[in-house]
Amino acid sequence: MNKDCKSIKIGTRGSKLALWQANWVKSTLQIHNPTLSVELVTIKTKGDKILDVPLAKIGGKGLFIKEIEEALLDSRIDLAVHSMKDMPAEIPKGLCIGAIPERESSQDVLISKSDSLFSELGSGSRIGTSSLRRAAQLRNARPDVEILPLRGNLDTRLKKLESENIDAIVLAAAGMKRLNLENRITEYLDDSIMLPAVGQGALCVEIRDNDPEVGPIVNTLDSRQTRIVVMGERAFLNRLGGSCQIPIAAHGKIEKNIFILCGLVADIDGSEMFRDTLSGPEDLAESIGVKLADHLLSMGADRILKSLTRINQKE
Q1: Mean pLDDT per 10-residue section of the chain, whose length is 315 residues
Q2: What residues contact 225, with CB distance under 8 A and at least 6 apart?
Q3: Please, what are the domains in the chain?
Q4: What stretches of the chain adopt beta strand conformation (E)?
């Protein structure tokens, strides 16, 4: 480890969850480096500023990280902490993923006003989500429910559940757990109903490529197993050219040195969905991700991707 680095600046969004994540990285780094001075720098992103338009309409992935990455490239900060699921498939030149800490739960959860499970919600129930991935899978499982757009940080969405005409919302379990809100969770949605976003529940610590001072310090946060799994999921996403404008989901795990990856591509209305699972040696996780993507494309997912790309280009 490099002992010359005495202070670093961490770039982060200003939401409660983002600050929790950045503070966790800060405190963990200081456990490994007790003399290290760490400052948090709050940066407002495009995704934080535009709250009245669905994410898919304003550019999808990258909305919550671009301004932070610019600060990193300009050396205004030394590292950035993101939710991995917000990371686009491609990292800008000059930057890299310095560490992927051990993953929190990757599942999605349902929070309902009546404390009803997803299967118990009445026909016509209104469920709020800003995610095309979640909306497509909810519609596929329950074509009789109504999906409403719901933007805002975690706190805002929980408040909207109480104040607006919504029966339930779907959020990531990781955020609820990190902010000690597990008591609000009605149900953890099984992967068979709701396959999570690529990288969901994992953090991304982004740094400048080949940074001789920050790289070795950040490396202490890295979880080898989490990195293998997440990079396998991201290879799947990358092969599909994934963005928030296309419903794509994937979840990987390692069992006895075998990497198992389940992935899906869905139409926005959930009427058509291509899903399968592929496994192989853990050291081939990324090639397994690519192979699974190719398999889904050959099954017919390419038709969905081409159709949605055409629609997005027209808009």
Answers
A1: 72 95 97 94 75 53 81 96 90 95 98 96 95 95 95 88 94 96 97 96 96 94 97 96 81 97 95 96 98 96 83 54
A2: 102, 254
A3: 7-103+202-222 (3.40.190.10), 108-188 (3.40.190.10), 236-314 (3.30.160.40)
A4: 7-12, 37-42, 79-83, 95-99, 108-112, 126-128, 146-148, 168-172, 187-188, 203-208, 248-255, 258-266, 273-281
pLDDT at 57: 52
Distance CA 160, CA 155 (A): 9
Contacts 24+ apart (CB under 8 A), 86-93: 86/61, 86/62, 87/61, 87/199, 87/204, 87/206, 87/234, 88/61, 88/62, 88/243, 89/61, 89/234, 89/237, 89/238, 89/241, 89/242, 89/243, 90/238, 91/206
Record the pTM: 0.90
Is residue 222 annotated as a catalytic residue, yes or no?
no
- Among 127, 140, 199, 224, which residue's Cα sits nearest to residue 168? 127
pLDDT at 59: 53
DSSP state, residue 266: E
Return phi, psi of residue 267, to 5°.
Answer: -75, 155
Q: Which of 52, 78, 86, 283 is catalytic?
A: 86
